[in-house]
Specification:
Elements (H helix, E strand, L loop, with lengths): L2 H11 L4 H10 L12 E4 L9 E12 L20 E6 L10 H10 L3 E8 L2 H6 L4 E6 L8 E6 L3 E5 L2 E5 L4 E5 L2 E5 L1 H26 L4 H8 L2
Parallel strand pairs: 2-3, 3-4, 4-5
Antiparallel strand pairs: 1-5, 2-6, 2-9, 7-8, 9-10
Length: 225
């Protein structure tokens, strides 16, 4: 996908919530709606505020030190492109934190819009002082180095949770807000955006009439065709 096209999709997605994205994906038969369960906002506030991140995924895969794959040279955080969402995961899961404050310092300086950690992260107050958005499963204190290494950067990664198995490809659109985190595959973005617009328009009309006394059922029949 061309850079200008990606930029246009990112701008458009800023108009919608993660719930709007999920509604559209469900209509496209992605029945989990792109939702990544267990990931919540920790910074700049804990599950509060109008923070929203939208951007193409820059993926990072951790694995145990004895994994046969070679360790990626250098540090992945030095290659984050502007506008990206850093998406870090580890297989198997670990109580070690996969991500810390210095990573956010560098990511923010590079123009990243936020980070999503499929696991634990640390340096919570440092993240908040940076006013940098972080979504994660939980917090921790121990770094990954003693047990894990980075084996892939900008490669497809798997997100497994609550019986759901989702592949996140580099460049897929990651959207995060107070509702949670969703992933919109690049291939579906062009179809999903018009559905979001239609749904939001219908829901706005429903809300007006419901406040006037119309039942939800009647409003749904009238506006959700």
């Amino acid at each position: 996908m061309a850079s200008a096209q990606k930029d246009g999709i990112v701008r458009a997605l800023h108009e919608y919530t993660t719930c709007d994205v999920s509604d559209a994906l469900c209509k496209l038969k992605v029945y989990h709606g792109g939702f990544l369960p267990g990931l919540t906002m920790w910074s700049p506030q804990r599950q509060d505020g109008a923070t929203k991140i939208v951007g193409p995924a820059y993926t990072v895969q951790y694995a145990p030190l004895d994994d046969p794959r070679a360790k990626v040279p250098g540090h992945y955080i030095d290659s984050v492109p502007p506008g990206a969402v850093v998406f870090v995961t580890c297989s198997p899961r670990t109580p070690n934190a996969l991500y810390g404050g210095l990573m956010s310092t560098r990511a923010r300086a590079s123009g990243a819009v936020g980070s999503v950690i499929d696991g634990r992260f640390r340096d919570v107050q440092e993240q908040r002082d940076l006013d940098y958005p972080v979504f994660a499963r939980d917090v921790g204190t121990t770094p990954p180095g003693p047990l894990f290494k980075v084996v892939g950067v900008n490669v497809p990664v798997r997100f497994v949770s609550d019986g759901q198995d989702t592949t996140i490809n580099p460049g897929d659109f990651v959207v995060g807000d107070v509702n949670g985190v969703v992933v919109l595959p690049q291939a579906l973005a062009g179809q999903a955006l018009p559905l979001m617009a239609k749904q939001v328009e219908a829901d706005s009309k429903m809300a007006v009439e419901i406040q006037k006394g119309m039942t939800f059922t009647e409003a749904g029949k009238r506006f959700r065709l």
